[in-house]
Amino acid sequence: MAVDWIGFGYAALVTSGGLIGYAKAGSVPSLAAGLLFGSLAGLGAYQLSQNPSNVWISLSKSLSILFTKENIYPKTSGC
After folding, report:
1. Strand, coil or helix: 7
2. 41 Cβ partners below 8 Å, 6+ apart?
3. Beta strands of the chain (E only): which ranges?
4. pLDDT band at 2, cuts 50/70/90?
5. pLDDT digit string (tens) for 10-69?
6. C-alpha Rg value of the chain to the nearest Å
């Protein structure tokens, strides 16, 4: 059974990004998003490590991050 080191590293990176955003700017949304999506990434990496054919949690996590980012940071350039 192979461990998904890349997935766990990504989860740690996302979580630490939320923590750093909170520590530097006091951003509670950054902290909440970092903890939420970092936890989902960790869960997806764990599931993928247990059963390599189970990609649904990782896929849904990636799509939710994409759609959330588009809703939080809409294009404001007017183009």
Report:
1. helix
2. 7, 10, 11, 14, 58, 61
3. none
4. confident
5. 899 999 999 999 999 998 988 998 998 899 888 888 888 888 887 776 677 666 666 665
6. 14
Cα 17-49-16 angle, rounded to 5 deg: 10
**Tokens 């990004």 belong to which residue?**
17
The whole model's pTM is what? 0.71
| Per-residue burial over 15-53, b = 16 or more CB atoms within 10 Å of its CB, e = otherwise | bebbeebbeeeeeeebbebbebbbebbbebbebbbeeee
Locate tokens 């520590």: which residue?
A: 23
